[in-house]
Amino acid sequence: MKYEIVEMKEKLVVGVQVEVDDNPQMPAIREAWEKVMFGGVYETIRNRCGAQAIGLYTDYAEKSCKFLCGAEVSENGNPELAAVAIPAGRYARFVVKATAEEMDDAVAKFWAEEMQGHPELGRLLDFDYEEYPDRETAHIFIALK
Questions:
Q1: How far apart (Å, rounded) are the C-alpha atoms in residues 28 and 75?
Q2: Total-model pTM
């Protein structure tokens, strides 16, 4: 899969944060998306920048990480939600296209298969994130050294 190297500015993301273990079904991620996108949380996020939903992976450990599902905000006016700043830096940007019904599987396949095929990237393993500009497109950003 093709990618491009981009310089990104810092982003503040607010939403629901969960711990993710090595379960291949990733139930915590699915539950966070359900809560945010279909449970009404997304609509309550104040100071959103645009309409993109964001899934953010941080705090990588041997068999776990944290996942935050939410939106970019101009400033945090959401004390009841988790907030994480994605640092400015270099990222590899991949674009995944699929029907809305197939998007979950397409993104899971990207993480399971595609990322194994790019050792040349020099992945940083501290902040990776997905942006969803629409229901049929995912932009996946991989932090680089």
A1: 26
A2: 0.91
Q: What pLDDT, in 10s, does the model give residues 107-134?
A: 989 988 876 777 788 888 889 999 999 9
Closest Cα to residue 14, out of 63, 75, 65, 104?
75
- Residue 126 has what DSSP assignment? E
Contact in structure between 60 and 20 (CB atoms under 8 Å): no
pLDDT band at 50 (very low <50, low <70, confident <90, very high): confident
User: What is the C-alpha to C-alpha distance for residues 144 and 90, in angstroms, rounded to an integer?
Assistant: 6
The CATH number for 25's domain is 3.20.80.10
User: Which positions ≥6 away from 69 have C-beta within 8 Å?
Assistant: 15, 16, 17, 18, 29, 32, 33, 35, 36, 37, 53, 54, 55, 56
Place of tokens 């090595």: 22
Question: ∠ CA(117), CA(112), CA(129), 5° rounding?
Answer: 90
Domain that holds residue 72: 4-144
Q: Could you tell me if 124 and 58 are in contact, meaning their C-beta atoms sit under 8 angstroms apart?
A: no
Domain count, the chain: 1
